[in-house]
Amino acid sequence: MPKMKTKSAAAKRYTITGKGHVKVGHKGKQHLLSSKSRKRKRNLRGGTLIGPSDEKMAKSLLPYG
C-alpha cells in the first residue's frame, strides 16, 4: 500500500504535542497590529490547543503526526 500524503497546508498550521493533542498559533497576530493593545498582542503569543471536534479533523490531515 502506498504512503499517505500529509496535507502541506495543515503541516504549516498544526503540530502534534507529545500527548497527542493538536497545537495551533493564535489568530489575529498578522496585521493591523497598531490598533490592538499591548496586552492583547502579548496574550496572542505562543500557541493554544484546538478543541476536540477540530482535533479529529486536523489529525486526519496529518497521518504521520
Find the CATH topology.
Factor Xa Inhibitor
User: Which residues sit in consecutive blocks of at least 5 with pLDDT less than 50?
Assistant: none
Helix residue percentage: 25-40%
Order of helices and strands: HEEHEH
State the distance separating the first and last CA atoms: 19 Å
Label the CATH architecture: Irregular
How big a fraction of the residues is strand?
15-25%
Average residue pLDDT: 95
CATH class: Few Secondary Structures
Protein model, in words:
The chain is an alpha+beta fold. It has one domain (about 10-60): Factor Xa Inhibitor. The chain is about 35% helix and about 15% strand. It contains 3 helices and 3 strands, in the order H-E-E-H-E-H. The protein has a 3-stranded antiparallel beta sheet with strand order 1-2-3. Strand 1 and strand 2 (about 20-25) form a beta hairpin. The chain is elongated, with a radius of gyration of 15 Å. The model has no long low-confidence stretch (mean pLDDT about 95).
